[in-house]
Amino acid sequence: MKKTWKMLSALLITTAMVATTAIAGFAAEKQYDGLISQVTAPSVSFDKYLILDTTTNVPNVDFVFELSSVAADDTLGTVAGITDGVTFTNGASSSTTAITASFDTQSTTYTTVQGSDDLTLDAGKQYAKDTMTLDFSGVAFTEPGIYAYKLTEDLTGTGSAAVNGTERYLYVFVEDATDTTGNHLDITGYLLTTEDDAIDGTGKTTGIANTYPACSLTFGKEVTGNQGSRDKYFKFTVTLSGASIRDDDVYTVDMTNAIKEPTANAATIYSASDMKAANDITELTGAQLKAGYDFYLQDGNYITILGIPENYGYEITEEAEEYTSSDGIVVGDSSLDWDDTAAGNDALNDATFGDSITTDIHTGFTNDKEGTVPTGVLMKVGPIVIVGLAVVGGIVFLAVRNTKRKAAEENEEEA
Fold first, then answer.
1. Is the fold of 43-211 the same as that of 214-368?
2. CATH code assigned to 43-211
């Protein structure tokens, strides 16, 4: 019995030792230590390009991006991206909720592609650029893998159009970096691409480009009629509308074909100081044009507002005073000679108002004032004139006849 008990005790002790050893071995199981500790590439940057006409000012606009996780894909060998802990940096600012590229009227513009910038620039175009950075050093990656993300741009209210889509795919490469100090992970690289089905570099890019399509608004004044004053100034009011017209945006005003410093004259009811204050400009803000801005034009004057974003609305009114006003200016009456051979642009016959405009507008007003000569005046004067002419003719005839008769009589006497 004692022998049996000794054997059972020995077995229990052995079992306990084995269990203890197993527990100890389990506690020593290799695990990655959480946050990336050996960061070869802690962040990735991408560029935002805004392409616009050289005559268009850079708008005051923000582009907002959302970073989201893409589900694991066994074919690509990717795993779902972890968004918690990703931070956005742009200059001195940082955020965990929004990725924003910002532009304003002071943004630097380029008319040729700079360095490694990833865009195509056509003649007559310029671009502005902002760089964003995503920092992944605070993400708790758990295993080596290729982590997949989608970067989506929101164009709402920007007035721009995507050059190559609003989505980009970002792949973060995380590798084992275990050393004698422990089991670590390392971010070794990134791939930003336009493709969602390839991680071989197809569609690789470093940025996202948008165009900022803009229009011009040209309006003018012509005066017709024999009583129309060619030096009289007429008051025009131009009003822009629509979500694309932001208060702090700036639009160039071309006054080349107008008078920037009008002078007072007998035909004009406005003061020279008021007219000069309105016309002596080169730029206007969206707020000024949304409120309605006054210009002063005389016969043959034309003004162009440049860089208005597409889908805007406009209305042009004038104070015609005692003149008969009509919308549009036909070719025969126009003194404006601009180099534009596009169909339909050979006259300023577009309407003086419109909504959701996506093309250049050429319009204006023709003011006519005719004077009528009273009928019958020439009829009453006519007979008197005729009688007078007849009398004069008779006198001349008699004088000539008398002269001839006298000469004949003198000849007879001499003979």
1. yes
2. 2.60.40.3050
Residue extents of the structural domains in the chain: 43-211, 214-368
User: Which pTM value belongs to this model?
Assistant: 0.76
User: Between vectors from CA 153 to CA 95 and to CA 148, what angle results, nearest 5°?
Assistant: 75
CB 114 within 8 A of CB 20: no
Nearest to 245 by CA among 392, 388, 394, 356: 356
pLDDT in tens, 314-341: 999 999 999 999 999 988 788 765 445 4
Q: Strand order in 361-368's β-sheet?
A: 283-285, 250-254, 302-309, 214-224, 361-368, 324-327
| Domain 214-368 listed as CATH 2.60.40.1140 | yes
Residue 383's contacts (CB-CB under 8 Å, 6 or more residues apart) are: none
pLDDT in tens, 84-135: 988 887 654 445 567 889 999 999 999 999 999 999 999 999 999 999 999 8
